[in-house]
From TrEMBL:
Residues 180-255 form the CobW C-terminal domain. This is CobW C-terminal domain-containing protein. The keyword Oxidoreductase does not apply. The keyword Zinc applies. It catalyses: GTP + H2O = GDP + phosphate + H(+). GO terms for molecular function: GTP binding; hydrolase activity. Keywords: Chaperone, GTP-binding, Hydrolase, Nucleotide-binding, Zinc. Residues 14-87 form the CobW/HypB/UreG nucleotide-binding domain. Gene3D superfamilies: CobW-like, C-terminal domain, P-loop containing nucleotide triphosphate hydrolases. GO terms for cellular component: cytoplasm.
Length: 259
C-alpha cells in the first residue's frame, strides 16, 4: 500500500519494499538535526523526519569524531527513533545483511525499552586496546521538537479488541487524536501526530499480525503461519509509535484499548 505505482502496489512487478535505510553524518548530523527547520505541519525538519521513518540507521564517518560526540549523536537519534538499529560505519562500509533482505515491512519490529534506549547495534568491537573509555556515558536528555518513541506491549487479542485497536490507530493517524483512558467522553482528546507506526500482535486464535504505517497510511496484514514459526514470533506483541505528543496519557489510552 506504500507504493504510488499501481503495479508495485499489487505485486505485479518483481520488487518489494524491503525497508528504509537512513545515513547520518557523524560529523555534522547532530548540528543539522538541531538546526533543521521546516514549514510543514509538524515543523520537525527533513533530517528528523527521515530518521523517524527509518528501519535501519547508519552513523557514518564515525572515525572522524571524538567518542563522546559519537555517543551524543547516537543518543539524539535514539530519542527520535528508538526502534531502529544504529550501525557505526566508516566510509559507508557495512555487512549487506544489515541493510538488504531485512524485510522490515513484513517482520515484527525489534524490541526496545527505556533501559536500552541509548544503546544500539554497533559494528565496533570493544577491546582492551581501544583508545576510548568503555564507561557508560552520562544520560543526556534531548528535546527534538517533541519527536519521541513509544512502545506498548500487547497481549493476545480477541476480535473485539482487534477492532478497538484498529479504531485507535485510525483515530491517531487520521484524526491526530486519541481518547484518554477511562472512556470519559467529557475529557479533552489527546492530540498526537504520528510519523511512523509498526507493531506485531496475535489474535486469541493464534493468528499473527504485523502493523506498518507511515503518516496517515497504515496496513495490518496477517503473517503466514510458516513465516511466524520461522521468525519465532511470540504471542505477546507490541505496538511502536514515533511522532509528537506521545505522552504517558497516550500510553495509558492505548493500554486501555488492549486491556
Amino acid at each position: 500500500m506504500f507504493w504510488l505505482n499501481e503495479e508495485y502496489a499489487t505485486g505485479l512487478a518483481d520488487i518489494v519494499l524491503d525497508g528504509v535505510v537512513c545515513v547520518v553524518d557523524a560529523v555534522f548530523g547532530q548540528k543539522q538535526m538541531e538546526e533543521d527547520h521546516s514549514t510543514d505541519d509538524l515543523h520537525v525538519g527533513e533530517s528528523i523526519r527521515q530518521i523517524a521513518g527509518s528501519d535501519v540507521i547508519l552513523l557514518n564517518k564515525s572515525d572522524l569524531v571524538e567518542p563522546q560526540v559519537l555517543e551524543d549523536t547516537k543518543a539524539l537519534i535514539r530519542s527520535i527513533n528508538a526502534a531502529a538499529p544504529i550501525y557505526r560505519t566508516v566510509k559507508g562500509e557495512i555487512d549487506l545483511k544489515h541493510i538488504i533482505g531485512i524485510s522490515a515491512y513484513q517482520r515484527p519490529p525489534p524490541d526496545f525499552s527505556a533501559a536500552s534506549s541509548t544503546r544500539s547495534a554497533d559494528t565496533h568491537v570493544h577491546t582492551e586496546n581501544c583508545d576510548h573509555s568503555h564507561d557508560a556515558p552520562a544520560p543526556t536528555h534531548y528535546e527534538v521538537r517533541g519527536i519521541s518513541s513509544l512502545q506498548v506491549t500487547c497481549p493476545p487479542l480477541d476480535q473485539p479488541h482487534l477492532d478497538k485497536l484498529d479504531e485507535w490507530i485510525r483515530n491517531a493517524l487520521w484524526e491526530n487524536r486519541v481518547e484518554p483512558a477511562g472512556g470519559d467522553s467529557t475529557t479533552t482528546p489527546l492530540e498526537v501526530q504520528i510519523l511512523r507506526c509498526k507493531g506485531a500482535f496475535t489474535s486469541a486464535k493464534g493468528v499473527h499480525y504485523v502493523l506498518q504505517g507511515v503518516r496517515n497510511m497504515y496496513e495490518i496484514s496477517e503473517l503466514p503461519a510458516a513465516e511466524s514459526e520461522s521468525l519465532g514470533v511470540p504471542d505477546t506483541g507490541k505496538v511502536v509509535l514515533i511522532g509528537k505528543g506521545l505522552t504517558e496519557g497516550v500510553r495509558r489510552s492505548l493500554e486501555g484499548v488492549l486491556a
